[in-house]
Amino acid sequence: MSREGSEVYSWGQGVLGQLGHGDEKTQRQPRLVVAFLGFNVRQVSCGNQHTAILMENGEVFTFGRGNFGQLGQGASVTANVSTPALVSALQGKHVKQVACGWHHTCALIDNGQLYTWGSGEYGRLGHGDEVRQASPKLVESLQGKEVTFVAAGGFHSSVIIEGGNLLTWGGGYFGQLGHGDETDRKTPKMVKGVQQCIAHEVACGTHHTLMLTQSQEVWTWGSGEFGKLGIGDEEKHAEPIMITALQGVGVIHISTGGFHSAALTSEGVLYTWGGGDKGQLGHGDENSQNIPVVVEALRGKRVTRVSAGMHHTMALVDNSDVYSWGSGEYGRLGHDDEQMQTTPFLIEQLIGKGVREVSAGGFHSLALASGSGESAQGAGVGAPYRPTGKNQRIGFATSKDEDEDDDTRLKTANTGVTEDSGIADTESRAASRMSARPGAKGAMPTGKGVTGDDDDDQEDYKLKQALRESQMEVAELRKQIEILTDRSKLEQTRIETRLQASQEERNHLRKQLERLQEKQQADAALKAKLSTAQEEIAELRKKYERSRGDLKQRTVDVHMLQVRVAQLCGSELDGLTVSQLEELERMQAEALRRCGVAKYVRLRQEFQEKEEHMREDVEKMRREFEERMDKMKVEVQKIQEEKVHLMGLEQRLRQEFQTQVQAEQMSNEELRIRLETLQDGFVQLRSILRKEKQSRVESERHPMDDM
């Protein structure tokens, strides 16, 4: 696909160089990245605080935060980069897609191979370890599988391979990998819960995942906090679940942000759901939604693309207009302010630019436009510089006009003086240029004492030069204060984000504790049942003992009867009459009746059977109880360890934040003292100039008075 040049616009937080303008300034309106003028750009991708640009020729440029190696510039370049730099390790490999996560980056080659680099924590790079990679490295476990699509999230990654199967890896603490558990995976693993589907697109959020199938079904899994899964609850789900509210609406595109999600239909209708505390859902309020809801403000406009960032959202419509809403901090919405917008708001600076793609990052935004002749004329931009030496970063030539504009902004907009003092400074610069040549035309009339006036002019020139230098130093100090303020905001935002993630983990632990309490209640019921069974066994044992006593007594009676019968039979049997024999038979029958042998045998059998059954039940309940107790001990130990870890993490974060605040307060105090000193010097210089001028005027009047 060939295009006659492209235009890349960026805005929002720039303190880490993620806007690509060669500085660390925050931009509240879209600003043209002059480095890419005249070149064909294929794709733009925003990470949390870094950016990747894919060219039509398959080259990749990165800029922004680089301390985790996410820029792919090699081990020698892990600092922030504010000018687009070529990822030289990918030269010769035609990249067809890039994806930026929080602290890592993925690049898909046209032959189906995948390269990843950046932070390896939780195994998000897929190399089988957690080692940080400062240069692109091939994901070897995907060899033999042709990758067709890649997505990078906060702490995990995902790909679609030929045939439509989905694989995920990285952090799985919230179930965002979809494997039915919370285990981290350091190499790609197939998601069996959607193996029956043909995946078309996948989107990875901070702690959740969305998947779009060829049949236009949307599946989701991971953390459900704020309802970002769209299934009507806020529970965590470690296995894929279909979003029934989106069935039949014809979804063709999905996007995930930090705490919210979005889906776009073939009719151009936009749905959003999840956290809405910053207005990022676009529903006119700050409420969260646990099911997809149509963005009513965009009805009647055919939306073609959507991109969800950390706390803001952007939508591109069919006439190339761009709308943004959500948190306006750092100017990430592009409306020349930092106001929060709860409904879509048109970015006026991009009207008529022919925007064809948008990308929302953590705290900044990008737009890719087709480019126009008017915008590119007179730009004077040279070709991108290719590094020729080791450790050398790429740079770009800029136009003379833009350099002059930057100088003007530095000298005037950032001077920190009032309008009157700015005019006075302009007049002093003009006067200094005139007085620099004592004999120049238009200089002050000299009359007598030309040499003395020249000395005065020279002295005035020196004083004005010192004044200008003081003003420049004041401007530089103000610029440093502005940079420190931006960095303070960045650090505060980073800590707030980590605290929010910590709070999400706390909520997860709280739910685990609730489930543990439910298990404890079930175990208590099992204990009560076990106690009842033991009481029944004790009662049966008592019955058994009574039966044995009765049996012994009856045995004695039978024995005595047998002795008596033997005596009768031995001594008087021959002399017994018929009546005596009948009496003997009656006594035997009575003995048999009293013995109750048959009843005793039956009772004993029943007792033995019941006792055996009860023993089996008790043994089974004992085993279940022991297994549950073992599991509960393991879970309690795990929860205690996680609680200690979270408390330590929170304590460290607070200490870091307090240390940063104290350091910035000290730095700001030093800058304030220097600024006040320079301002005092500035006032003194102006006073000296005023007195010198007054004395000159008086000295010039004396000759006239003498005449």
Characterise the protein shown here.
With 707 residues, the protein is α+β, with helices and mostly antiparallel strands. The chain is built from six helices and 28 strands. The chain is elongated, with a radius of gyration of 42 Å. It has helices spanning 373-376, 400-413, 419-435, 450-572, 578-595, 597-706, and strands at residues 7-12, 27-32, 41-46, 50-55, 60-64, 81-86, 95-100, 104-109, 114-118, 133-138, 147-152, 156-161, 166-170, 185-190, 199-204, 208-213, 218-222, 237-242, 251-256, 260-265, 270-274, 289-294, 303-308, 312-317, 322-326, 341-346, 355-360, 364-369. The strands form seven sheets. The protein has a four-stranded antiparallel beta sheet, with no helix packed on it.
Characteristics:
single chain, alpha+beta, 707 residues, 4-stranded antiparallel beta sheet
Topology:
Elements: E1 7-12, E2 27-32, E3 41-46, E4 50-55, E5 60-64, E6 81-86, E7 95-100, E8 104-109, E9 114-118, E10 133-138, E11 147-152, E12 156-161, E13 166-170, E14 185-190, E15 199-204, E16 208-213, E17 218-222, E18 237-242, E19 251-256, E20 260-265, E21 270-274, E22 289-294, E23 303-308, E24 312-317, E25 322-326, E26 341-346, E27 355-360, E28 364-369, H1 373-376, H2 400-413, H3 419-435, H4 450-572, H5 578-595, H6 597-706
Helix pairs in contact: 3-4, 4-5, 4-6
